Each structure stands twice: as C-alpha cells, then as structure tokens.
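Tip: read the tokens left to right.
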C-alpha cells in the first residue's frame, strides 16, 4: 500500500506539472489581461497613453504575449512556486496563499454540509426508488432527479431567493451577516452573530443540496437495481431472509462499491463547485473571489486557485482508489 501511494504521488507531480503549463498558457491567451481591463477607461479618455499601459504590463510581468514571453512568465511563476511562493494577487494586492487561506473556510463549510446532506438524502432515496421500481415513489424520485439535473444554479437560486427571502421573508438572501446589526463583544453577542451566519447559509446550502442530489440518486438507483438482480440476492431471498436484511446488509455494501469512485470529485468540489452559488448569494468565499479574479485576468490568483483544485483532485482520486479497495476486497492495489 505504501509503495503504491508513493508511486501515485510521484506520477501526480508530473500530472500537476502538465496541468500548470496548460492552465498558464490558457490564461495568458485570454483576449484581455488585468492591465487592459484596469486602465481601459483612462485609455479611452486619454488620461494615460498606450505607452504607459505597456509599462504597467512589464511591471506585472505580462508585457510579452508571444510564445517566448509566455514561456518566460511560466518559468518565473514555477520558480517562485518551488520556493513556496504563489505570488501576489493583482486584484486583491495580497499574497495568493493568504487570500486563499483567509477565504477558503466559508466555502468549505457550505460545501461540506451540503455534501453530507446530499449523501444522507440521495442514497436512501435511490435505494428506496430501486426497491419500489415503477411505483409512484420511483416515478417521484425520477422526476425530482430530472429537476435537480436540469435547473441551472443561478436560475434555481433566484427562485429560492424570491420565494423564501423576498415573498415570505423567512431568511436573508445576501452576504454572511446582517450589516445593520452591531454585535457585542460578549459570549451572547457571539452566539447571536453565529446564529445570523447560520441563517444566511441556509439558502446557499439548500440550493447546493437540491441541485446535487439528483445525479447521486440516479446513480444509487441504477447500482441498486443491478445488485438486486444478482444471483446471491436471489439465493438470500430463497433462504427466507427478511427483505430489509437482504437490501441493507447484502445489497447495500455492493451498491456502495461504484459510489466510492465519487470520492475523486468530492474534495475539489468542496471549493470549486461553490463559485456560482457564492456569486448569486453575495458570499465572499473562495469561489466568488476566483470568479472575480478570472473576469479581471488576475493571473497569479487564477494559477494559485486552479493548482489548489488540481492538488485536491489528485488527492481525491488517490482516496477514491484506496476506498475502492476497502469496500471491495477483490480489488488489490498494485505495487
């Protein structure tokens, strides 16, 4: 196992190196860069000249957009990375590592809670749908699944805000705390502030859960139907074993085997999947900051954020392989 993990990590370093080249090249090939966007108005009004803009580009290290210039820029970036420096964000004027470290936790909290709820809801519903195939319950779950898969995040979030925040006024729709309140620096004030934050997070978590459980429910239903048709399930039933024991003892574990592969996408999705949700609900998490940085061509932050997601993807894939070998003893990890 140890040799396998070490081998995978060494291979992952090569993969991350290739990913970094692709991402950096794509970012540098964007039609507009940070300097162009920042000084577009001043350039149009004549407040500054093109020569001044070109000088700023040289200062930011993005002046030469030729192949040689891109290669030089990437070499400078990778050299700093090997020294533990992700560079300074153009937009936020802070070290990239600091911006990610300060803003990743709220995104992680929202996505982690949503992921746990997703599994707690989707897997039982998927199993129930499979064990009651072609029933009203099965058709209801199928319709619910299609709704979750079809609705865009921004559209469903707008509906949720309209209903629960605007019309009913039950929950806040924007930000993390109520800007009109001044919480006292006491234990009671801290509890009140925490409750305010929880209320602000209910709608983003609700939207994330509803839009994500559809695929997992369908996946669970399909796997359960396949397992329920296996010979050993028919044998267990022929021996007089109770239906609940057949499903939740014998069938459930084998149903979970394909679901273990989903672990590969869970870690990066905890941070990368919240971009649109945070934008709609005005939450300054890492996803929203990355979206703003991408719009303005903040190369250091875009690189740092995407490499962060790439590392999480590699770790998630490794965890998925290990979990697969745990839930299915027939699978042996190679040396």
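Filled-in amino acids:
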């Amino acid at each position: 196992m140890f040799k396998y993990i070490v081998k995978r990590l060494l291979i992952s370093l090569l993969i991350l190196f290739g990913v970094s080249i692709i991402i950096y090249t794509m970012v540098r090939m964007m039609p507009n860069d940070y300097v162009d966007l920042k000084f577009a108005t001043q350039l149009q009004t004549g407040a500054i000249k093109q020569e001044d803009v070109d000088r700023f580009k040289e200062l930011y290290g993005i002046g030469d957009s030729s192949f040689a210039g891109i290669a030089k820029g990437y070499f400078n970036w990778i050299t700093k990375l090997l020294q533990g420096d992700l560079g300074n964000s153009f937009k936020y004027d802070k070290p990239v590592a600091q911006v990610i470290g300060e803003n990743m936790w709220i995104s992680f909290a929202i996505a982690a809670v949503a992921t746990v709820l997703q599994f707690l809801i989707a897997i039982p519903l998927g199993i129930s749908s499979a064990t009651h195939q072609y029933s009203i319950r099965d058709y209801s779950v199928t319709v619910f699944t299609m709704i979750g898969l079809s609705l865009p995040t921004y559209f469903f979030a707008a509906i949720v805000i309209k209903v629960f925040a605007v019309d009913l006024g039950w929950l806040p729709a924007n930000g993390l705390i109520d800007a009109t309140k001044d919480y006292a620096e006491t234990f009671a004030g801290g509890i009140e502030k925490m409750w305010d934050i929880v209320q602000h997070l209910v709608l983003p978590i609700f939207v994330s859960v509803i839009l994500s459980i559809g695929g997992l429910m369908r996946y669970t239903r399909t796997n359960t139907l396949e397992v329920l048709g296996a010979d050993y399930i028919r044998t267990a039933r022929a021996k007089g074993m109770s239906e609940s024991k057949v499903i939740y003892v014998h069938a459930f574990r084998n149903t979970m085997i394909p679901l273990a592969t989903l672990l590969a996408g869970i870690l990066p999705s905890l941070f990368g999947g919240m971009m649109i949700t945070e934008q709609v609900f005005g939450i300054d998490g890492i996803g929203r900051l990355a979206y703003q940085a991408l719009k303005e061509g903040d190369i250091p932050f875009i690189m740092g954020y995407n490499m962060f997601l790439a590392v999480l993807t590699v770790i998630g894939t490794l965890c998925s392989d290990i979990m697969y070998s745990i839930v299915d003893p027939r699978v042996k990890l190679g040396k």
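DSSP finds 15 helices and no strands in the chain. Residues 187-228 form the longest helix (42 residues).
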